Amino acid sequence: MELAHTLILNEDALKQLPEHKRPVFELEWLRYLEKALPLVSKAEIKASQKKLVQQLSERIQGAPGPPIRKLIASALATLFSVGDTFMLFDTVNACNDILKNKDDSPSYLPTKLAAICVLGSMYEKLGRMMGRTYEDTVQILIRTLRNAESQARIEIMHTLEKVSAGMGTAIANVHKDIYKAAKHCLLDRVMAVRVAAARCILKMIYSAPFLYQTELESLGTLCFRAFDGSNYEVRCAVAQLLGTLLAYTQQLAEAATSKKKQGQAVAIQAGKGATQRLVSLDEALGILMSGFLRGGASFLKGTGEIIKGSSGVNREVRVGVTHAYVVFVQFMGSVWLERQLSTFLAHVLDLVANPKAACSHVDAVYSRKCISFILRSTIGKMLGEKAQSAACKELVHLVAKQMNSIDFNPENAKDSNQETLFSQHLLVCALQELSSLLIGLGTTAQNLLGDQSLQAIDATCAVLVHPCAAARLAAAWCLRCACVAVPGQITPLIDRFVEAIEQMRSSPEAMAGYSCALAAILGSVRYSPLGIPHTKGKVVFNCAEELLRSASQNSRMSLHRTQAGWLLIGAIMTLGSPVVKGLLPRMLLLWRNSFPRSNKELESEKARGDAFTWQVTLEGRAGALSVMHSFLLNCPDLLNEDITRRLLTPIESALAMLVNLASVLKSYGTQLKAPAAMVRLRLFETLTLLPANALEASYTHLLRMLVSEFTLSDNAANTTNSLLRTLCHGDDSIILGTWLQETNHRTIEDQLQPNSAAGSGALEHDPCCLYRPRSAQGNGSSSNGSSATSTGGSNGGGGSNIQQISKAQQCPGPLPLGVAVIDMAVTLYGTIFPKVANKHRLQMLEHFTECIRQAKSSRQEAVQMNIFTALLCALKNLTDSKTSLGQEDVRKSATALILASLTSANSTIRCAAGEALGRLAQVVGDSHFTAELAQNSFDKLKSARDVVTRTGHSHALGCLHRYVGGMGSSQHLSTSVSILLALGQDSASPVVQAWSLYALAQIADSGGPMFRGYVEATLTLCLKLLLTVPHAHVDVHQCVGRVVNALITTVGPELQGGGGAVATMRGSFLCSAALLQSHSDPLVQAEAIGCLQQLHLFASKSLQLEELVPTLVGMLACNYFILRKASVSCLRQLAHREAKEVCELALTINAEQLTDLVITEYGLPGLLFSLLDTETDAEMLRNIHV
């Protein structure tokens, strides 16, 4: 490689190399040129410029791959900027001639792409030195665009973007031509073309004012249409364009306003002297609003096809516009946001109160998520403490104003009902943002809560009597957050609400609202350092017991009192064992009296009562079970044999009731469907916390109920669970596509994912989340169990409490009841499966096969997903408990079920089937069985030509190696690797390439030293793919990165050696990492950082920290969470060995290198410290702390 480090390419050395090594040699030379040209003396460049231009021009004709053409382009542009320009126009003409060539064959395409790329780099770097050549070039590019295939369309858009960037206003005469071409590409069927077109128009905004003046509305509409059918990358790129476009209108308006104040003329001239109108803030926000509510339909005049169905706006458009709102505010800056705070808040909250934003309950939840995301990303992240306090005041005023506008007089109910129904969403978003701000402000929120003129607590309490549950729950959550921030509020508020419940016992809304608030406040006690007096728990318990006792006295209030009573008792459990211990006898009595004590009682119950009585009964039983769950979760130390036995009586009774409930449900129809589902959910939740063998006698009934739940036998809807993502391996996100990516936008992007309910969580789905800990570990117990006067309190050091409070900041989003029940059924099934007899296992597996066979199309997919989630849960528990799968017939049935789904058309099901196959081989633990499974996949891969079979069986091989381990699968390692290496070269199908490379990475990871013999061949393939695969195939590059990472681990400490072969391999790894790093996609760049991190582990001297550290520090300011996370992780590792050097290098970074970051005198530690204000990911926070 040293021979490549010369200014002029060493052609003799190149000719002596074997064919497959030549591209790497050329790459090394071009990389050297990129670094050396700016540093070489002008005389030296002058002497060799002619030869250099000739050699680089020859390389253009040599059909270079994406990275090489980028380096050729960069080298030529740099050469003409630091050397003479005498051959510049010849080079431009040569590139134009290549584009004029009519040869459309695939073999000539790389040459054309290289010519386009070179033109782009030269215009970008040399700017107006290019003279008027742009006229010819732009017209040729636009003509070429008409018949170009997708790669060429992407490259042309990139080049037009660079022409606009380099030439600025000098090319005003062709701006409209470029815009016209980019408009078509913005609606292209290939997503990468849309991204490139959005970036091209974005770059034009800086020098083409007509875009944000005469074209403003039509370009806005175009952006909404570009969001339709888009993927994540397109939404980000188009939102960047739309947000920046509108920000420019406001900058123009602000400039005009400041001139007016100074007494200057306000007429703004545009090119030929025409005065342009200014766009007000209301108009700019109005354009975004039209997209959010109607998808821009108001501009489209009959183009209604972008609205899917009649249910309002397309969700992709709404999420895209949400991104655009955030971009707009970020562009305008924090000072502007502070100045326009009230206008912005009122506008954003009015969006969600609009009937078009909430056509259905699910739509309303999605819209609320979007609005909360806008508020968190702007007010939560851009403002300082003082401005956040002002935002809190503004939100309190908005909440109070909204509550004052509600007419509670029953005579006017008809008129105001609709308005109240939609205004609840405004209140939910305002209160959720207020909650997050209070947690962030911490104890400084005391000033806000104590402000007599503001009366924040009173304004929030007023919402507790709102007619809609969602608003009441949001107010309760807000009060909980106020108590976490200022623990001094807990005791006064408990007293206030206990008294309010006593006084307002005849109002259903007040009963529901105040009990929710009291439950939420009790749930906040675990975050308080000092807790609350013990007697408070007893006072609340007496109040709750009285509510349950008086429930039957007033039929109008019976349902609300029942719900309130059980909710409060469930919240008391979170105060921990010291409080609950004294109340346990009374609780056991309440549980016993809540359920029929014998079958005779159960039968007589079925014979009497109407729908309402049954509804109250079922709500009461669901409540009793939710208290049991809370007791088991928060007071596990009180659970002994006697208590378990006494708990099992009501639990068995609940199970018996549910088994016999069919006739009652038939009689009363859909009215009892939800309460019955809630009882099932609470029963399943409770059973997951009891020992798995506790209900051994009732397994038959329980299993039948669980299987019927997730196979949807009594459910007409195609409901899927939300657990499949978490049960598949974390790395599988690569092959499952973007829906598993870690991004800051996950909260809003989740709603667009197929077969996923993850985005539809809302507090009204399960009020118990008001008091439940954010994770099972957050048990609220008294401080070390020794305090006799207080309860609650933190159970750990300050650091853990900070993390707990950070978790408390996020409002919980329990999933819809239908999804939550299936989730719990699947979890419980997995727990019980290892305890079940062989014949039952066989029956269930055969039943699963039958269920899948009978279902059709989308219902079949839903059933399959639920069955595979349950199966993965069961296999995981079998492994954990070291239990065997069962006899030969069970093994055969499970294998048949899994193999049939390996060729499903749905990639998620294929992924789950591969995972299940690996886990099955792990549980069986028989090398002969594993060999059979592997051989089956080999045979299929050798004969099949379709994408589905190839991807499914590639993944199966990867999973077999992953779960059986290198030693257990060594005999078929060679065959697996050779087949996957062959599939990795299948350029006709990038999907097959990605899946096979991912499987190869798993095999390399699990193979350890046994994979060492395959490293060279695999690394050669990786380099070849990095040099040839188009950058648009992000998943292939990402999988290559994963393979390279695994290979570095395989070679390990050997990389420190000094031999020629080791040095060559080390160079190849560094070359691969550099190629990955040069990719534009953040996911691929993150893989590159992972590779460099592994190299640092084994061969730290091979890395150049002076280049790496500035790159990593620069990434700390980027918008992509995955890059920030990878950067922090890598910096942490570097700091373990070279802390002083890393800090010194960070201080040497100048402002030109990092435009978005300001490094103060505190250097890197200060920068990392500032990240603690904005980052929320637990792993990243841990890395920053360390």
Structure description:
There is one protein chain. The chain has 55 helices and four strands. It is mainly alpha-helical. Strands 1-2 form a two-stranded antiparallel ribbon. A hairpin with a 3-residue loop joins strand 1 and strand 2. The longest helix is centred in the first third of the chain and has 30 residues. The protein is globular, with a radius of gyration of 33 Å.
Reconstruct the topology from this structure.
Layout: H1 11-16, H2 22-36, H3 42-61, H4 66-82, H5 88-100, H6 109-126, H7 133-147, H8 150-167, H9 172-185, H10 191-205, H11 216-227, H12 232-261, E1 269-270, E2 274-275, H13 281-294, H14 297-300, H15 315-332, H16 334-339, H17 341-353, H18 361-382, H19 385-404, H20 413-441, H21 445-449, H22 456-462, H23 469-485, H24 490-503, H25 508-524, E3 532-533, H26 534-550, H27 555-572, H28 577-594, H29 599-607, H30 611-634, H31 641-659, H32 662-668, H33 673-689, H34 699-710, H35 724-727, H36 733-736, H37 746-749, E4 790-791, H38 798-808, H39 817-832, H40 838-854, H41 857-880, H42 888-901, H43 907-924, H44 927-943, H45 947-968, H46 973-983, H47 990-1007, H48 1015-1028, H49 1034-1051, H50 1060-1077, H51 1082-1098, H52 1105-1115, H53 1121-1147, H54 1163-1171, H55 1178-1185
Antiparallel strand pairs: 1-2, 3-4
Helix pairs in contact: 2-4, 3-4, 4-6, 5-6, 5-7, 6-8, 7-8, 7-9, 8-9, 8-10, 9-10, 10-12, 11-12, 11-15, 12-15, 13-15, 15-18, 17-18, 17-19, 17-20, 18-20, 19-20, 19-22, 20-23, 23-25, 24-25, 24-26, 25-27, 26-27, 26-28, 27-30, 28-30, 28-31, 30-33, 31-33, 33-39, 34-39, 39-41, 40-41, 40-42, ...
